[in-house]
Amino acid sequence: MVKSPEDQDFEAAFTLQYKTEYGFLLENRKLLVDDVRVRAVGSGSKIEKKRIQKLEQVVKPETRTKVYFENLGWFDTPVYLLSALGAGAKIDGPSLIIDNTSTIVVEDKCVANITENGDIRIEVGEQAASPIGTELDSIQLSVFANRFMSIAEQMGRTLQRTSISANIKERLDFSCALFGPDGGLVANAPHLPVHLGAMQEAVRWQMNHLGREWKEGEVIVSNHPSAGGSHLPDFTVITPVFHKDKKTGESSPVFYVASRGHHADIGGISPGSMPPFSRSLVEEGACIKSFKLVRDGTFQEKGITDLLMAPGLIDLGPSYVGPKISGTRNLKDNLSDLKAQVAANNKGIHLVSELIEHYGLEVVQAYMLHVQNNAEEAVREMLVEVSNAYSLGEIGSLEALDYMDDGTPIKLKLTIDRKKTNRRV
């Protein structure tokens, strides 16, 4: 819904709201007014407020008492009775105002004003924020870890809310995550673990592939296994978070946000795009290594449509005897869910930018490294616990063997060095 703007330009208001939500605009689209709502506000009988007597003299505290304030410590604090305060009285903080049933604390650098009706209006002053440095602090580590996690979780909620397919909206087959400037994983919401292990490689592949050609506002989509993808129906949408350096004035990526969602169909020899008897990748559907889904603020609908329909246009020659290859069978859902993934990334960008605006880039990136180092240390401790649980020596190994359908063996050997807390696979 778009509220009535002051200039009555509903189209401009809707366009701004759409761009803020999704991060792009659609070209050559007419607007359809689907719903018009009118809200009327009326008032019934009013309860008249009683006026209190105006204060004619300087207010003096009834008593004083020791109160602990975070920024002041123990402070000899004046105590006032509310019943003794008239209209127009001003009480500077720190102080206490007590009534028969309540106690009101007026913090330091705040002022309590008594209105003509006896209400208390407190003006909150600006408190000097405690400076947060780049050095590791255990409390701030927990705060930032949860802030980073919250960004990924809110991205996921945006994706679920704006998507239309059952796969994403109801089955929740998607994942969202935040990555550092080197493409390393910083935080991932508790979505699908199988997605998150590969998303880091997908981000880094695009960074190496595009380099400086990846401009601010451009969004990349990819699903190819050689570009960090899993199976083809999982489309990964990646957006860099740019930040302008105040000294040089240049913008560069300081974080990356990504969302991966399972699309119900992307073409191939069978509906669902997961054929068990495919002999080549093209038989499984559309293969995209790197495509700029959003460029110059515009969603590239024609370009992505051509890629999704491309499998059905491939000429495999007269020697091909397999089933007919089709383009996507559900284009509308593909496009809608891709737009939802872009919207989720856009949400992540706004939240990361707010975090940087509040703490500064240096502090945010410092705690990004602290979170990553803490995660590494947790894994090392877990490996030591595994070594002890299996009664291994100081340097001991665990081995496992399994087989694929055709009998190919898969062997794994895990060597744990408790002294160095290292592991070798």
Reconstruct the topology from this structure.
Blueprint: H1 10-22, E1 63-69, E2 73-81, E3 90-92, E4 95-98, E5 103-106, E6 111-114, E7 120-123, H2 138-162, H3 166-169, E8 174-179, E9 185-188, H4 193-210, E10 219-222, E11 234-244, E12 251-262, E13 291-295, E14 298-299, H5 301-309, H6 331-359, H7 361-389, E15 395-403, E16 409-417, E17 422-424
Parallel strand pairs: 2-4
Antiparallel strand pairs: 1-2, 3-6, 4-5, 6-7, 8-9, 8-12, 10-11, 10-13, 11-12, 13-14, 15-16, 16-17
How much of the sequence is in beta strands? 15-25%
User: Helix count, per DSSP?
Assistant: 7
The main sheet comes to: 7 strands, antiparallel
Structural class: alpha+beta
How many β-strands, per DSSP?
17
Question: Which labels suit this protein?
Answer:
425 residues; alpha+beta; 7 helices; 4-stranded mixed β-sheet
Protein model, in words:
With 425 residues, the protein is an alpha+beta fold. The protein is 30% helix and 24% strand. The strands form 4 sheets. The chain has a 7-stranded antiparallel beta sheet with strand order 9-8-12-11-10-13-14, with helices on both faces. It has a 4-stranded mixed beta sheet with strand order 1-2-4-5, with no helix packed on it. Strand 1 and strand 2 form a beta hairpin. Helix 2 packs antiparallel against helix 6, helix 2 crosses helix 7 and helix 6 crosses helix 7. The longest helix is centred in the C-terminal third of the chain and has 29 residues. The protein is extended, with a radius of gyration of 30 Å. The two termini are 55 Å apart.
